[in-house]
Amino acid sequence: MVGVAGGIAAYKSVEVVRLLRESGHRVTVAPTRNALNFVGSATFEAISGEPVVTSLWSNAADVSHVHLGQHADLVLVAPATADLLARAAHGIADDVVTNILLTAHGPVVLSPAMHTETWRHPATQANVATLRDRGIHVLDPAVGRLTGSDSGPGRLPEPAYLADVVADFLDQSITRDMAGMHVVVSIGGTREEWDPVRFLGNRSSGRQGAALARAALVRGAHVTAVVGHVECPVPPVQVRVDVESAVAMHKAMQEVVFAPDARVDAVVMAAAVADFTPSSVSAGKVKKDGSVPELTLTETDDILAGLVASRGHGSGPVLVGFAAETAGDRTSLESLANYKLARKGCDLIVANDVSDGVFGSDTNAALIVSEAGVVDEIPTARKGLVAHRVWDQVLRAPGLGIYDAD
Ligand code: CTP
Question: pTM for the complete prediction?
Fold first, then answer.
């Protein structure tokens, strides 16, 4: 069930509905009267393939506003305007969307979009707090260009992000149990320059890292993402640092994790970092001149091991690494994961077998190991679900909560 309130971002809800349908969901759209000033019901009807519910009085015999809320697996309202948040917070049911919210049995996800001043207004913030206390999932708006020339927090996140969030909520129960935490996630693959037109890269799409950032955001964390080359949308994190090479990622990770006021609780190195980089970068394009050029490589620094070293003993963020292995079977995957955990000195390793096409895929299977052995084993699942299980383990890690005392 997708409710649409009357904001300019209503046009993006059409794409959300399309993506949800493409992933196999049945979607009924309920626009408010004001939403219909931005997008006509014919558009919603054609894209959803279902009749659009626009009024409490249409189809009265079916009492559809009650029926829809009761039977929807999930209700998403995108965009949710300040007015809609206010009415929802006070239990007002004066249109079809707010009526559905009062009868919903499944998770309710509201995605606000409005001007920055409206979002930051104490009245809006109080309404958001009330709704969150009640278990309603109010997403944070994205930061960026708004209608007109201004920019700031208030944008509706990109439709692909919202469709992924919906899929995550349908997979598992989610709470804001990471509120107050600051986490850092590295995402994507690095690219090592050889000459002005060539680089050495890898197959990482960034999907697992993006899923980790998304999961932390919906659980209420403040997320810093260090992003290499990605082939997927990056969630609307609070701080994003884009990098290209392993050296640049190393520098950025050290800076964001150990900045004086950063108070980072956990770091997940989901990025695929180049182990080797060309020893020298050619200033001009390497030309075909009859001989095959030789490429000499130098080993890069291990970023994760560097974070472990900088953290020192007994204090600092929980450090999580990934292990991309071509193990072949579960026993070897487990022993490779244990070996990597010991070699890197981090707290958790999420090991996956990349022999059968994990890169670029929407699914992953993983073993999570700590010093205590295997702490979770996840059969092939959406990367969103794997991400939530990784955070579940981070929340149980003995070193977490180091900043709670002061
Ligand atoms: N990693 C890192 N710095 C590197 C290489 C890898 O921080 N220079 C991190 C990755 O982000 C990942 C973990 O270390 O979290 C393991 O990466 P992986 O490629 O599986 O292992 P490697 O350390 O490269 O070892 P090997 O290639 O021998 O498996």
Answer: 0.95
